[in-house]
Amino acid sequence: MKIEPMLVFDGDCSEALKFYTEVFNGKQVNVQTYGDNREHLAKEHRNFTPKWKDKIMHASFVIPSGEKIFMADRHENTEFHQGNADSLALEFVDENDMEKIYNALSKDGTIVVPIQKAFWHAMYAEITDKFKKHWKLNCQIVSLD
Q: Which residue of 10, 44, 78, 95 is 20 to 30 Å from 65, comparing CA positions?
């Protein structure tokens, strides 16, 4: 079994998918819109308006290390609640890689914890990006073993 993160958006998933694919040097492997699945959704009585047909129902991208991240826009008739208890943790082995991702995610976002040396002998930072997704970045600089 694997655990794969799923990020849900309020109508801007397509923009976020492009952004994250670039930030993480990833590759999109699946993109389906609500319009692509109109017949299936109609059978389930989950209709949507024409303005929602190009919104993302299912998407995923794979980063170079092989991890997959799933993404979607909420269903049009589902209320969106941005959670503040959810975050994605990124573990780096190279401080330069961490700084590159930190700079990309923080552009037009909010730096919650700037890159700093943490008491657990790591470089650490937290960012809420422009899509209101919370990221925790860690790069262990001294082995704790």
A: 10
